[in-house]
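ok posting inputs for the glutathione job
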Amino acid sequence: MQLVGYPYSPFVRKVALALNYKNIAFERNPLDPFNHKDEILKLNPSGKVPVLLVDEFAISESDRIVQWIDEQHPDNHLIPLDSHLRERVMLASSWADQSCAPTLGGKLFFQRVLKPHYANEPGDQQMIDSVLSTAGPALLAALEQQSPKEDFIVGEFSLADITLSSWLRAGLLAGLAISASDYPKLVAYLSRVYQSPTWRTEIQFENTLPLVQQAREQFAVSQELLK
Ligand SMILES: N[C@@H](CCC(=O)N[C@@H](CS)C(=O)NCC(=O)O)C(=O)O
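and the output
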């Protein structure tokens, strides 16, 4: 089984986390859409990563990939069987993707970390500042209200936790401040998630990547949540 996609993508990270959670061994093929568009297009007509390759079978779209993994490995569901819980998980996951991708992804992580590296030009400082000063704190304030006091978003650990924590890690790496004094419930929740074995495996791997090391040194302010 091969996970195609560069590991800095929060969408790709979602699939890595799901595979870790299920203890499924996989290879990484870290193609990025900046330099390897044609190769990716052969696997996914939208030209996007992640793609999960199972023999010759290519599956795309992060939530659909996790759904497929969950069906093939039905122990410890990441998408609950109960229809109400399942709906809440799918809604929370797509909400996190849709609200975080343009802000924490496109305007912050991409501009600050990816663009200088892949396009060799500086990111748009106005976009970066707007997320750090306004859009980011507004998102975090909303999440603080919604954070579960114990356990995870729907009680048991699920795809919803994977998606949200994946995006917040991108934000943290690019310098988003998430302090326990401002967001106590959110920080307690995120600490629980990032300490899980699923995340420990991913963090251990990611901390070997030069771009992650550089972002941690150059931009990150809430270091505790990145360890
Ligand atoms: N809805 C897709 C989004 C995937 C996505 O946007 N991936 C980005 C990487 S972060 C990508 O490959 N972008 C290239 C492009 O849009 O051409 C998913 O959940 O997998």
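notes: The beta strands are 2-4, 27-29, 51-54, 57-60. The chain has two domains: 2-72, 83-226.
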